[in-house]
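Subject: Major facilitator superfamily permease structure
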Amino acid sequence: MDEAEEDHDLWRRNLHILWFCSFIVGMAFSEIMPFLSLYVSGLGHYTKAQVTMYSGLVYAADFFVGAIAAPLWGMVADRKGRKLMLLRTSLGIAVAMGLMGLATNVWQLVALRSLQGVFAGYIPNAQALIAAQTPRKYSGAALGTLTTGGTSGNLLGPIIGGVLAQIFSIRMTFFVTATLLLITFILSWVLVKENFKPAPRPAKNAKRQNRLVAVPNLKLIVILLCSTMFVQFGNTSISPIISLYVKELMHNVGPITVVAGILAALPGISNIIAAPRLGRYGDHHGSGRVLLFGYIFATVMYFPQGFVTSVWMLGILRFMIGISDGALFPEIQTLLTKNTPVTLTSTVFSWNQSFQSIGNMLGALLGGWLAGIFNYNAVFFSTAFLMLINLALLWWFAPEIRHRQPATPTN
């Protein structure tokens, strides 16, 4: 087998392995996230406003630290390899998650979420590894397929977590999550293969500069990084309040954690169906067009969620959001891949993770703040408005994405 055939088999093999690992990671995280605000409310005697504020702070702590740490880890990845980053994040977060199950007050939870942020980034690093190994003509389909691994896990995780929380306790889900992440660590260590070639070190007398400057189309990269921030800002603003919103719609009667878990899982179903198909469509007709569609569809679907009066209507709209997520996240990553040299893939993807963390942090704080001052429906209105703003920015400042993007040279 020659080197070209070996590389061809390697990226496909790693895609299958990392799809499964991303599935486990997605399931592990989604077991916890929909109920984190309920966990916070059980750590003290808080008013409604205090619960939403503290929930936003707990969500934001992870992402604040992650935004700082991600670019540093990205530079390490470009020097030492992406597989090492997979091992670092899966083991580190497993420890942090296990300790969260032992927290006795909200400030301990904030501190442990901050520790989680130091080690965050399994799925972004898996995406960077696949993006670096996959031929550019297959990158849209490959990244779209990889995305379905995490979203498939997100589909099952809330349901499993809801059942565990209903039968045992929310604390139990933290210990299950830690165990799943340890399994991911072992699988990544044993099965993932990487023929890594580090980027050359600059000469000792060379002037130090931000490595992003070396990207050919820096303006487009920066716009896409900001788009990642806006998308995460909108999505995460809802995370701290979704289970509380369900609780209100159900009038605090019935299996709230189970229903909240099902509603949190619904976007994953449509995402699994939509993401690979939208990725293949983008490879042939232009990833930018799929991205613009995702923003329009997200705006239309988020706005009416603030008017719902039953969990059934909320469930239908949450299901539809999975389609927009299938267009937004993979296509931003695909456009980043197609416009980034291979030697800078981890650097750009780490900055993408950093912008994602900033969006997560600001979104969590905004969601908790808006819900505390106004009501839960205000969060959905602000998210729809944010998607509309991002669409306008892309339309005016990155007109090239409306056309099919040629692949960037891989040197």
